[in-house]
Design brief:
By secondary structure, this protein is of the alpha/beta class. It is built from eleven helices and 18 strands. The strands form four sheets. The protein has a seven-stranded mixed β-sheet. It has a seven-stranded mixed β-sheet with strand order 7-8-9-14-15-16-17. A two-stranded antiparallel ribbon has the order 10-13. β3 (32-36), α1 (42-49) and β4 (58-60) form a beta-alpha-beta unit. It is globular.
């Protein structure tokens, strides 16, 4: 059975707390797993969440601040220790290649898995598979940072009443899907477009064009909200978003399920992030993330 969910491994920003680990997020997309921003302690959080190295197909790093990347060393060594049998690809800002290399070879270990490096140097598509297209967009942070967006190709939804009206049944249903017509009846006459699902991952950034492009039309959006709205100037100074800003982005983009995460240690009341997001006008499903939470991708409309 296919599973599409976001497994949240850590939700702290620069400093972990007693209750929040550094960042780490695993997107399960049917049979694949994409690990985003493995901060310090990610390997242990994977264990606690029931995530194995074998579940990983891609690693996507938004930028090379420690809370988003220090876990790479342990995760990569675990991939090799467990002899993951399938290819693993790592995406990260090309300007940070030296940091990736240092983390990949931080200590001595036996390298048994050939991790493919695919650095990101500009906006655009970085991977295409039958199941999804993965793209990256530049964000606005003191160091080079990219957000990621996964888009499933559109499909077709067969309409039983129209099939019946045209007398199409049995093997002919598969035939019209493959060939486009059966006995003069076109696929468009008996089906409709089934919109592909969309997920975006937006970490450390100020408001910028990339944020809006990544969020547009997402079924599930995981986005940083490091600060509360009363600290908006502090957020701008350090290249971050507030809860209200993140919620307004989601509202304007038509996001169905918003996940707020990456919280500053200065705040102890997570309910305030939800209150400010609602005050900003976001009316969709809303989750204020906590460690080891699983958030399903919303079912298709």
């Amino acid at each position: 059975m296919s599973v599409r969910e976001l497994v949240i491994l850590g939700t702290a920003s620069q400093v972990p707390t007693r209750h929040r680990n550094h960042n780490g997020y695993l997107l399960r997309w049917d049979g694949e797993g994409i690990l985003f921003d493995p901060g310090e302690g990610t390997q242990r959080q994977m264990l606690r969440a029931g995530v194995a190295a074998h579940d990983l197909n891609r690693i996507c790093v938004t930028h090379f601040h420690g809370d988003h990347s220090l876990g790479l060393a342990g995760v990569i060594q675990r991939i090799n220790l467990d002899r993951v049998p399938h290819p693993v690809t790592a995406h990260y800002p090309k300007s940070g290649r030296r940091f990736f290399d240092r983390l990949r070879y931080a200590t001595a270990y036996r390298e048994t898995v050939g991790i493919t490096e695919s650095p990101v140097a500009e906006d655009g598509t970085i991977a295409t598979t039958p199941a999804y297209t993965l793209e990256a967009r530049r964000l606005s942070h003191p160091v080079e940072s990219y957000g990621y967006r996964l888009t499933e190709p559109d499909g077709r939804r067969m309409l039983p009443d129209r099939l019946a009206a045209h007398g199409i049944k049995g093997p002919d249903v598969g035939r019209i899907q493959r060939e486009g017509t059966v006995d003069g009846v076109s696929l468009d006459e008996v089906s409709e477009v089934r919109r592909g699902q969309r997920f975006a991952f937006i970490m450390d950034t100020r408001l910028c064009a990339g944020v809006h492009v990544l969020a547009e039309g997402c079924d599930l959006l995981a986005i940083e909200s490091t600060f509360l709205d009363e600290d908006e100037q502090l957020a701008a100074d350090h290249g971050h978003l507030t809860a209200g800003q993140a919620a307004r982005v989601a509202r304007e983009a038509g996001v169905r399920h918003l996940v707020l995460t990456h919280f500053s240690q200065r705040y102890s009341e997570p309910e305030e992030f939800e209150r400010q997001a609602r005050a900003a006008g976001f009316e969709g499903e809303l989750t204020v993330a906590h460690d080891l939470l699983r958030v399903p991708v919303p079912k298709r409309r």
